[in-house]
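User: hey, got a sec? need UBC core domain-containing protein folded
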Amino acid sequence: ILLSTDRRLQEDPPTGVSGAPSENNIMLWNAVIFGPVGTPFEDGTFKLLIEFSEEYPNKPPTVRFVSRMFHPNVYADGSICLDILQNRWSPTYDVSSILTSIQVGWFFTVTCIFNFSVIKLNHVQL
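Assistant: Yep! Here you go:
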């Protein structure tokens, strides 16, 4: 399943995200989300780790930011509070849908909480 996911992601990547398995472990993926245009994250490059268990796709992977992320749905350790990674998980989700959900969630979630005409976050890159 993960090999076909990798192939699909490389052949038809969604805009603003990328990911691939680590060299020696198909269960551990490195991913990047590029900050969406029109958000405080614009022009930022944010790295993530995705760890799959043997129960995937029946159980969601563990996803966390490696890059420092200031967002109300990202914990200090980089783990992400996102419904599809918890109680709304579906075996139909793949790496593309996970990364896209995180990226889209920045805009819709954060914009409702903060007034970004006042706040512009610094972009942190590793």
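Quick note: The first strand starts at residue 17 and ends at 22. Let me know if you need anything else on UBC core domain-containing protein.
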